[in-house]
Design goal:
This protein has 123 residues and is α+β, with helices and mostly antiparallel strands. It is 41% helix and 21% strand. It is an enzyme of class 3 (hydrolase).
Length: 123
Amino acid sequence: MKFTYPKHEKLKSKTTIDLLFSEGKSVSKYPLRLVYVENTEPNAELIKIGVSVSKKYFKKAVDRNYFKRVLRETYRLNKHLLIDHLEKPHAFMFFYQSKERLSYQEIEEKTIQLFQKFNERQK
């Protein structure tokens, strides 16, 4: 298993992002939220993921960028939890939704719990 976050896994398609927000289902583990939808595009990758941090909670771009980096890193190290349980291509949006500034270790624990919760929903 490669612990990478290559370009082809990054969610950039505006139509897919719109689909996520209109028809997507979500799983939460405070302060994280994962919105997902089955990707129906032809030749779609097994997984596409985007990361977002609310401007409402973190006014400074420096702070938002820090948490986006942390979310991408926790995804990169734990994506095997998602990939091992997916049969069809999916698109994901990964959110940090709190004013609270959790440490990297706490965010990683929550990410693992969130991915496990997603896997339970898929069964």
